[in-house]
Amino acid sequence: MHTPSSPRVALFVTCLVDLYRPEIGFATVKLLEQAGCDVEVPETQTCCGQPAFNSGDNRSARDIAIRTIEAFDGYEYVVGPSGSCIGMLHHYPELFETSDPWHRRAQDLKARAFEISSFLVDVVGLDNLAASFHGSVTYHDSCSGLRELGIKAQPRALLARVEGLELKEMKESETCCGFGGTFCVKYPDISNRMVGNKTANIAASGARTLVGGDLGCLLNMAGKLKREGHDVETRHLVEILTGCSDTAAIAEPADDRTRLARQL
Amino acid sequence: MQINSPRFKERAHQALDDANLQRALGNLKAGFPQKRAQAVACMPEFDDLRDQARDLKNHILEHLDLYLEQFESKVVENGGQVHWCRTGDDACQTILDICRAVDAKTVTKGKSMVSEEINLNAFLEANRIQPVETDLGEYILQLRGDHPSHIIAPAIHLNLEDVSDAFHRHHRRPKSDDPAVLMREAREMLRKQFVAADVGITGANFLVAETGSTIIVTNEGNGDLTQTLPKTHIVITSIEKVVPTLEDMTLFLRLLTRSATGQEFSVYNTLSTGPRRPGDLDGPENFHVVLVDNGRSDMIGSQFQEMLRCIRCSACMNHCPVYGAVGGHSYGWVYPGPMGSVLTPQLVGIEQAALLPNASTFCGKCEEVCPVRIPLPKLMRHWREKEFEKHLTPRAARYGLGGWSFFARRPRLYRLLSRVANRALRTLAGSKGRIHRLPLAGGWTDWRDMPAPSGRTFMQQWNEKKAGETAVSREKKA
């Protein structure tokens, strides 16, 4: 229900959440609605274009940027559950000459685009978080969110309000997990060493659940944790903030209950 | 130095499996970054100094010709000479000519990455002049026929046993694993060389335009002996090292050592201002500055101009998780790590060095610690743009990217593709929640599992939910 006081927010699902883990999308919507937002999911959104941008293919990146700017036209805010993809939206102005009208529109999108934890804490000041989680978690700071958008305190501030949750910081939480988008495909063995260092730090933290704000990094770390046989679950921040005990964690088999729920 | 950058992947692969190298790199990781963090924590104005240094460097680069000419006229006024060298070969030839003019047999050398860049040692040896490296790390490498793997800690890839072996083999002394004994041994060997040398060659950290001075920032004191004992002192350096005044130099000194080793000040900060003056107790009779361009002036006005702000502190490589995993030799040329991934394509050509700017996750740690705020990830991305424009990107990656971008621009097709991929991945995973082996994605599944999608795509589920809600509200209305 749109009321004058509720901001009209477009959810930027991001392609990995769309493909791999819809729960993150739904949890993001739930948090935004809890914060009093009127949430819509524009049909014409696809991917932010980062793979093209980081591969030096600026023409494709520009074409995708134009599509994305159009898809999110007219919304007061654009919010997504990823520092990396929202960070890419913040790069859009670099793709256009300042004299190009798309440059102004890219600037305009940049000003409206927020990663979910920073939106909840810095923009709307969510004050009715009512989640509980019984166990210990450790938080990985994904690079783009941390260094391009300054996301460090916000997720921790939100986690601190989750009843029963204990945060056990890992060593080197700010060190890259080695995902790096196409990097993990181009340099798989270096990427593997980096994620191996990361899982060692995660395991040493003693936390039972790894939490982060970017699904690309989480898929990488969850895949490595499982391959190495660690008894650590992996979840996106928004899953914890909305209460997630009824769904299987990333890379875990769905239990019978959730499988049944999904079939229905 | 031979360019091995095209073999980056192979060399990195070997480096990852090299237990000794990994042990040595472990020491680096535990050392420099923590020392830098401590030094920065003691200096609240550090970030303000970084801004000042960035702005000052930008100003210098806008007026580089002016400051270089001022520097030259001051050097001449002091009784020295400046030699302008467009290429590395020009610089080598200039240095050889100076050595021949004084009939030099041996030269001592302080640490200089520019001399590595222009292959000076090999050139002098080919012309029957023996260069002797006097920096301890460089000395060890010279004995081993090795090259630096780091710009300030050249032998960081070695362990104590490697040094012990090299000394035992070359010094013909009893083998020792005691660093103090090894240090004394090196000192004794080098002392003779310092006295015998006809020419001393050093690098320079900065050139001061207002005084015509050059400065070396060191911890061992070898540079001082190198430049004061022989009759001729040659400074080999590159054009972007000039700063306007002594005061400006101190701004960079405050940033340099803190960023590099975490020291507030290094042990020796030695200024050279012309040759020995009448009444001076020591110093060289001849003072030459060889200014190398070697492709740098092409960066002025280009997308890569900001790279010329670099003061060679090594903070970017000390903090880089890729450098930390594979070490400096993997990069295959003189300058490793993030700064090298930007500089090497400029100096040797993107055709040879395209793998380097790709060897980054763009995690941004390098930019975070750079004392002159060089946007290293952005500059690496500019090299990827050049690579793409020149069709150097591997064909498979190009086609893959082209196909993906075709779909990303067509939302309906993209949805269809997402649904197909989603279904395929779930089918492959079965009830396990993850995939152990995925065809065409061996780079991923050789090392880690591929998590499976947890259900149908978000868009499918969202649209169904919305359709359901609409149907319910229609029923209510009816």
UniProtKB/TrEMBL annotation, chain A:
Residues 9-89, 137-221 form the Cysteine-rich domain. GO terms for molecular function: oxidoreductase activity. Pfam families: CCG (PF02754). It comes from the Bacteria. GO terms for cellular component: cytosol. This is Cysteine-rich domain-containing protein. It comes from Marinobacterium nitratireducens.
TrEMBL record, chain B:
GO terms for biological process: lactate metabolic process. InterPro entries: 4Fe4S_Fe-S-bd (IPR017896), 4Fe4S_Fe_S_CS (IPR017900), FTHF_cligase-like_sf (IPR024185), Helical_ferredxn (IPR009051), LUD_dom (IPR003741), LutB/LldF (IPR004452), LutB_C (IPR024569), NagB/RpiA_transferase-like (IPR037171). The keyword Iron applies. The keyword Iron applies. Residues 301-331 form the 4Fe-4S ferredoxin-type domain. Keywords: 4Fe-4S, Electron transport, Iron, Iron-sulfur, Metal-binding, Repeat, Transport. SUPFAM superfamilies: alpha-helical ferredoxin, NagB/RpiA/CoA transferase-like. Pfam families: Fer4_8, LUD_dom, LutB_C. Signal peptide: none annotated. One of its GO terms (molecular function) is metal ion binding. This is Iron-sulfur cluster-binding protein. The lineage of its organism: Bacteria, Pseudomonadati, Pseudomonadota, Gammaproteobacteria, Oceanospirillales.
